[in-house]
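Convert to structure. Protein one:
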Amino acid sequence: MSTSSTGWVTEYYAAWDRADADQIMQWFTDDIVLEDVPTGHIATGVAQARAFVEHAIAMTPGTTYEIVHSAVTDDAFATEWIMRPAGLRGSSVGTIRDGRITSNRDYWNAASVR
């Protein structure tokens, strides 16, 4: 898994598109922190992150992500996305270490759903 370009973002969201919790989890470090900012939910560590991922997949069956734009540096990323078919617009911002995600904060606006 390389973070040298935005290509890894496509691979990461493809795992979400497939609802593949095992593949998603491979992108995270052991000390991962996931935060869903609008709901205030925070998952820290692998066990909580897996529960978060599995819950998200169960709550949004058939969801795919359209990547609008991504910016990646050696240690950080930001991605704007649209969750389909709902049309929910949002973004993910986080940090990277050794090619894996160490933190991810999701920002979204339910008012964008038509």
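Protein two, convert as well:
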Amino acid sequence: MVLPACAQEGPPPLPPVPEEAMAAVAVEPGVPREPLARAIDTLFTADGIGETRALVLMHRGEIVAERYAEDYGPDIRFTGWSMSKTVTAVLLGMMVADGRLRLDDPAPVKSWQRAGDPRSAITLRHLIQMRSGLRHEEASDPAYLSDEVRMLFLDGRDDMAGWAEAQPLSAAPGTTFAYSSATSVILSDIATETIAPGESAERRMETMADYLDARLAVPLGMTSLVGEYDADGTLIGGSHIWATARDWAKFGEFLRNGGSVAGAQIVPRGWIDFMRTPSPASPDYGGQLWLNRDSETGRDTLFAEQGPDTAFAAVGHLGQYIIVSPEQGLTLARLGKTDGEERAALVDALADIVALYPER
């Protein structure tokens, strides 16, 4: 007797999408709903990808997916870590637009302007594009010797900008890319001195908090946006700005729309274009933003081989992401905790979500 073949042709069918995953996705998300729900579910359930605590996906200005891990929700603020750098860059753009600062003038740091100090050649453009030449060593080993750790938690913690600004040059200004949280704190100090020159620590903090609220949080509807400050009253603009997942997504939409909200231009479109323009020292970095382009160094912060080169992202420690793809009308905010060895798998999963949407 010959038994009929029981082998199945092709791969086995995928298991049903969990009800919770489907419920997190809008009925009409702009692409087939089930594959999108499945891709988002991977972020929350897959092994080796870290812990996703919140995700908000927007398509053409509408939230099409929103999901939270247990114990998290829409009212929880998340620290942006280095996504904060992008907020700081927008604040600088407002001051440049107001005529208070100039991109290619020497950066207004008093301690650099003494006769013979080579740091006087550092411009605001150099700082924003992470090519100041200052000796800032991010994520070095051991961690307690890393400059961002020393600045935030050890010998620099009371006057972070003073500590960052005191470092010598290790390269000629403008020539070398070196990613640095200390650089972004210098930018925060420049911004604060611009609007509150020579003021007390308390007054510096109050003035910057009011500026952040009036010029950014209120126009964007980011009611949860708040910053932390050091003992000298400087906004910790490289790492310590907080907002809910929805508000981080609103910030991404603001960038996607070239600095405008509901037709109101909050920061000049040309400034956002500058932030999205590759640094002369690093093709995958712009102005406090990562770009979806080949780094030419083997560094893979985003997914240049898979997505459009017009996509960009604010990226923070432990896997905080705001990914923006104007060509696809997309903004994706992911908050959570993913350690370094799992980061590549996380980026792959985020890329799979983005890839579901066609380019225009």
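The radius of gyration is 22 Å. Residues 151 and 160 are 6 Å apart (CA to CA).
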